[in-house]
Each structure stands twice: as C-alpha cells, then as structure tokens.
Amino acid sequence: MTVKALASGEVTKKILHQENVFVLDVRNERDFKDWKIEGASITHHNVPYFELLDGVEDLLPILPNDQEVLVVCAKEGSSVMVADMLSEAGRDVAYLKGGMKAWSEHLEPVKIGNVTGGGELYQFVRMGKGCLSYMLLSQGEAALFDATRIIDVYIDFAQQKKATITHVFDTHLHADHISGGRAIAEKVNATYHLPPKDATDVLFNYEPLVEGQTYTIGSTTIAIQPLYSPGHTLGSTSFIIENTYLLSGDILFIDSIGRPDLAGKAEDWVGDLRETLYERYKALAPSLIVLPAHFMIMEEMNEDGSIQKPLGQLFKENHGLQVENELTFRQMVTNHLPPQPNAYQDIRETNMGKQQPDEEQQRTMEIGPNRCAVR
Amino acid sequence: MKADSVVDAKGLACPMPIVKTKKKMKEVDEGHILEILATDKGSTADLKAWAKSTGHEYLGLESQGEVLHHFLRKGGASSEQKGQQIPVQPLEQFQHMVLTNALDGLILDVREEDEYKAGHIPGALHIALDKIESRAVELSKTQPIYLICHSGRRSEVAGQQLKDQGFTKLWNVVPGMMHYAGVIEKKGE
Questions:
Q1: Which CATH number fits domain A3-103: 3.30.565.10, 3.40.250.10, 3.30.830.10, 3.40.190.10?
Q2: CATH superfamily, domain at B88-179
Q3: Whether A50 and B45 lie within 8 Å, measured CB to CB
Q4: pLDDT classification of B79: cutoffs 50, 70, 90
Q5: Residue B177 in contact with residue B111, Cβ under 8 Å?
Q6: Which residues in B lie closer than 8 A to residue A75 (C-beta atoms)?
Q7: In this predicted model, what pLDDT tens digit does every residue of B14-23 receive, in sequence order?
Q8: Closest chain A residue to B44 measured between Cα atoms?
Q9: Where is the Rhodanese domain (chain B) (predicted)?
C-alpha cells in the first residue's frame, strides 16, 4: 500500500473544505495534550510512536476506511516510520510533511476584500498557532501588519502580486510569537512601526506609531489610522483601514477578548482594557470589520477560512463585551487568566532585540498553543 | 552518574534514539543502567514517557553542551517479558493494615539506603535491591513478606529474586512509598 506525504497547505485546504481527516498523532501524550491539528472535520487518536515499535496491529481496527488517515509527529521522522508500518499492514495512509514543526510555520493567505484603487487586503492564517497577520496591497506597494517570523512567505506573496513592501506595522510587542516585523523591514528596506509605549526597551530603531496619523500605500491614499487601545499591553494600537476594517491586534478577538497580564500587570491593565473595549471601540462604527491578530478555536473561522466579523455583531455576541458591571468585568478578566504562553518572557525579549535566538531556538520558543485570550 | 553501558544516538532524529535504546534494553539485564547520548531535544520527554510506559526507570538527565546524557535503569520482569508476577497488594489496603496493626508478616523495603533513611515505614526491614539475592538467607520462608519500594517496580524485581530462592508468601505493595500516606520514620537502619 502507498504512503503519501501531505504538506501543511494541503491539510489546511482539507480543513477549510470540511473534509474528514483522521489524525493519528504519534507524539507523546503531553505534547498532544498541549497542542494538535484542529478543525471541525478532524478526528484524533494519540498513540506515542514508541508504543508502536513492536507493531501496529492493535491500531488497524480503529483506523477508518472511509477517510484520509494522516500520521503526525513532531518533525516527520516517527510519522514516516509509523506510516510505513501501516502501509506494510495493508493500509493507505499519509503523513504530515515536516511534522508539527512545519504545521506551526504554515501560513495560509485568505482574501478579505478589495480596497480603493484596485487594492486588496489579505489575512495570513497561521493554522498551527492561531496567529493572524495581514497584507494590504495597493498599486505596487504593500503594508504588513503583525508579521510572523516566517518572513519569506510575505516577501514571496508580495513579489507574486508585483508589490514592494514599504511599511511594516506591529499592533503591539508580541509575547506569544516572534515578530517578523523587524527582520522583514530590514530585508526589504521598509519602515518598521511600533507603538512607542511598548517599545521603551527595544534595542533597535523603529518609527513610533502616533494616534491619528495616516499612511499612504501605493498611489492611492489609504488611511491607516492608528487608534491607541491599551489593555493587552500598554501600547496596544488598532488600525482602521478606509473606514472599513478594524485591525484589533490582541485587544478584541471574535470569540474572546485580550488578556492583560502578559507583562505581569493584570491588575493595572484591566482598567485600560475595559476603557478600550467599552468606550473607545464602542464609539466606532458598528459596520467596521474586526480583523484580530489571533484566533483560538476553529469555531471562530468563517466558511471561506477567514477570521472576521463586524464590530456591531461582536458587541452583541462576544461574551467579553457583555459585562455591564465594571467590577464583574475586572473579576472575570483577572480570575480567568489562562496559563501564560511557553517562553513568553524569552519571546518578548527577542522581540525587543535583547535576545538573538537561532531558528531552532525560535521554533522551540514558539512551540505550543497561543494563549492570549480570556474566555 | 555511572552507567553500565552507553547508547550513542547523537545526531539522530526521532524515532531513532528510542529505537536504539529499546534494542539495547533487550540485550541487558534488569537493573542495568543505560546512558543514552542524544542531540534531539525531543528525546527527553519521549524517553521519560517511554520508560514510564515500559516499566524502566528514567534516572535523570545530564547535559554537556549540545549533548544530552539520559540515564535509564532497566525495569523488572513486569515490564518487557511478562513472567509470573508477584501478587499485588494494593497500597491503600496495605496502609490500612499497617495503621491498624493488622499486618501479619514482614515489611521489606528494597530501596537504596538514602531513600530508606529519608523516610520509611516504622518496623520495615531494609535490604536494598542489589543485596536481596545475597541476604535472602536472613529471611524466613514461612512468614509473609510485603515488598515495598518507591513505585512497586524494584519490589517486583526483588520479589522475583526471592521467588527463585523458594519464597512463596510474597506480596508486592503497589504503588510504593511514593503514595504512602501513613506514619514514616526518618532515621538510619
């Protein structure tokens, strides 16, 4: 029987097309519990590869015949071994090319919409980690928002679209993933913009974001209005593009709201978070399409694979926006903080330029699920 | 830590470190300490989980630069080749018997001396696993013996050795001292 390799992009498409996939995850139990491939059409079974060294016979009865069986491990090696064994036992199976390492680094571009002058806005969905980044294209120029460290994807994409990246923005100093903002700005000679209040300790040059400023991308003027919206971090800034899109960073997600404690200041920052969500965002047009920097659960994803919803709808549905009483809100936020992301302190220092981890170390730092939200 | 033999899995990616370790484990005797050299960072979590599921004991990790030195002790008969097990005495019931003075027989603690000194059941006799074979003559074959260690693994091995010498009234307390909640004594033998 045959064994085929499936790339992360192909698995992503299966998830977006609601195709049933049986994931046989052969990593150890702890890693599996920590994070895995998720999707409405995905079924999981976890058996560590080291329990299969003597044979896969016990597995055969539980493998479905009517759907793709995808063997997954950390870096591919063990999944190839198990897939080969299953193949010898007479089963057609696939393995995930590059393992969860590759899965964590795959970015899927999804078109959000058009902007004035033939421009386009794309959302880059990092399935394995829930990070969302954005590229705004207009007449040969491009702006990037909350870029991940997998910078070649953006550079190649811009090239395909015959555009030059001129501006790179981060909504805040990220603590859950390593920003590709600085690296990409250096590589393509673009300007890197950061909120100054998040950047007090950074060891490199950047352009401070100022509230109310507008930027021009391409020959058409596109208004990117930074909106000071603290709460997740002190400097968290949102962007409004053409009065249509609200890039909310880690302040407001589709199903949840940002956590204010990543720099260890939950008590101090919860007030800012409250004000940003219940006053500043409330005053914005309900028709704005909210485009967050993360998603946590697959239910947040629309059928086209995008993660977006009108602000007005979120004020009706997002549980974090329904708490009238400020004290209740404070308690909800501070009592329900999830565990902090893996290595978040190292990640922050890397994003400040204080640490220079190599690629392998960066991968290790980012392993695991995203934990930026309170639910 | 001193190992009896070494498995070199440097530069090898998963699953090879465990494949090589498993192969070597089959060749060595119970209680044998294996040192595994690996550079794959995932080997730590995997070797620990593998040891747990197969009944070997993960003793510890020492790193020297890029190289991880894992130490494993080969587990007893209960692990790989499933022989006749020593009858299990569940800890909870055992604890109750100790508490109510209802225990008829000898408690034999087979852990290392340091472990024994750090806390043991009052009245327990201490003979470390590696001395069981030579000191079995000190024990009576007619009285019941309750074997205990940290987890129940070494006591199983000790029980097998006593069984080979003709002991019949053996019980293995599972799990061992790791979950023992009764009174303990902290002094020498």
A1: 3.40.250.10
A2: Rhodanese-like domain (3.40.250.10)
A3: no
A4: very low
A5: yes
A6: 13-14, 42
A7: 899 999 999 9
A8: A28
A9: 101-189
